[in-house]
Design brief:
The chain contains two helices and four strands, in the order ββααββ. By secondary structure, the chain is an alpha+beta fold. It has a single domain, classed as 6-pyruvoyl tetrahydropterin synthase/QueD (Tetrahydropterin Synthase, Chain A, 2-Layer Sandwich), CATH 3.30.479.10. A four-stranded antiparallel beta sheet has the order 1-2-3-4, covered by helices on one side. The radius of gyration is 15 Å and the shape is elongated. The model has no long low-confidence stretch (mean pLDDT about 95).
Length: about 120
């Protein structure tokens, strides 16, 4: 049976700041994220409907995070926390999810695969 990987991307703008060793004042980022899914093609020849993914991303991720102050949502508003949260938000609906990647800048990102 043919297996494929599908990656759907999204982005949102939010602010965060850090205490401790990461000490930074609150500042905005446009976070980019990618969710990668893996599995067999269905009887119609595709893994997942892109439109369904995009709608779910908008409703469950962007609607909650776009324009948000991440310090009010996360104890530690790091890119790592975002990757874990996005993964845990998507996994119950999409069992084919294998990883989430989140970047706060083009040259660095976090990948989370569900490992604890």
């Amino acid at each position: 049976m043919t297996q494929v990987y599908l990656t759907q991307c999204g982005q949102f703008t939010a602010t965060h700041g850090h205490g401790g060793t990461l000490a930074e004042e609150k500042h905005p980022h446009t976070f980019a994220y990618e969710a990668t899914f893996h599995g067999p093609l269905n009887t119609e020849g595709y893994l997942l409907d892109f439109r369904l993914l995009q709608a779910h991303f908008q409703r469950e991720i962007n609607a909650r995070l776009d324009g948000a102050d991440l310090n009010t949502l996360f104890a530690h508003p790091t890119t790592e926390a975002l990757a874990v949260w996005i993964f845990n938000t998507l996994k119950p609906k999409f069992v084919q999810l294998v990883s989430v990647k989140v970047a706060e800048d083009k040259d660095r990102w976090i990948t989370y695969t569900g490992e604890e």
